[in-house]
Specification:
single chain, alpha/beta, Spore Coat Polysaccharide Biosynthesis Protein SpsA, Chain A, 2 domains, ten-stranded mixed β-sheet, two-stranded antiparallel sheet, 9 helices, 12 strands, 40% helix, 23% strand
Length: 264
């Protein structure tokens, strides 16, 4: 019988966060880490925690995650990032799904005759500079991260990849904490990397977005995040997050314009 759950993670220089991430899922049958050339202690930490670590040059977030999924051997896969922590409540919900009587007996339908889900989504709570956001339009999302290995794959997008699922999708209880930015330095490193990849992706699609118009809209982006989006209720952290978020599309389109000019 195949193991029930493979946890897959992609990494690069995540030594400060990978331990907490992997310790929260040590109960899984296997943990696979696909590393794209860490120069810190990421690989050693992951190995010490029992993970199978494989090197693969970075090929975009979607493609990199597909490499990890293809290495999995369990019937179910949980895909998480190094800055995410699975809570105990979510762990219980995941185990309940993969260890259900229907799963253990190989059934394809539940007692009501409905096809069993091919994937599950759950809550992901945003944590910014150590503060758990309880308010705001983007303080919580519901990504699809738990799926049958043979029923899903990631899109090939360089950044902001999505999961393509062949079958029904349901939701389970519990939440995951997303410690995306622990320091301002970490934020700006990720901001630079993500805007680079987003600009490349738009360039490949021959996007004609206007950089001047996008820059002029920056104040409106701030209002959308801070006032309309509700981050005013998150205090100082919400204010800073709204400022940074409002500049993301501006920098992304400015980099797109730079690519257009350099590759004429």
């Amino acid at each position: 019988m195949l193991p029930n759950l493979s946890v897959v993670v992609i990494t690069r220089n995540e030594a400060s966060r990978i331990k907490a991430c992997l310790e929260a899922v040590r109960w899984a049958d296997e943990i696979i880490v696909v590393d794209s050339g860490s120069t810190d202690e990421t690989v050693q930490i992951a190995t010490n925690l029992g993970a199978r670590v494989v090197h693969h040059d970075f090929a975009g977030y979607g493609a990199q995650k597909n490499v990890a999924v293809n290495l999995a051997t369990a019937s179910w896969v949980l895909s998480i990032d190094a800055d995410e922590i699975v809570t105990e409540a979510l762990s219980i919900s995941i185990r309940r799904v993969i260890m259900s009587p229907e799963e253990l007996t190989g059934k394809k339908h539940n007692s009501s005759g409905e096809i069993l889900p091919a994937a599950y989504r759950f809550r992901r709570r945003f944590v910014f500079l150590g503060k758990v956001f309880r308010h705001g339009s983007d303080s919580v999302d519901h990504p699809i991260r738990l799926f049958r290995r043979t029923k899903a794959r990631f899109s090939d997008d360089l950044v902001h990849e999505s999961l393509i699922v062949d079958g029904p999708i349901a939701e389970i209880d519990g939440e995951m904490l997303h410690h995306s930015y622990e320091t301002l330095s970490q934020y700006f490193q990720k901001f630079d990397r993500y805007t680079d990849l987003a600009a490349e992706q738009l360039f490949a699609k021959n996007s004609r977005r206007n950089s001047l118009l996008t820059a002029l809209l920056q104040p409106l982006y701030f209002v959308r995040h801070y006032i309309l989006g509700g981050h005013i209720l998150n205090g100082w952290h919400g204010f800073i997050w709204s400022i940074f978020s409002s500049w993301y599309p501006v920098v992304k389109i400015a980099k797109l314009e730079a690519l257009r000019r350099s590759r004429r």
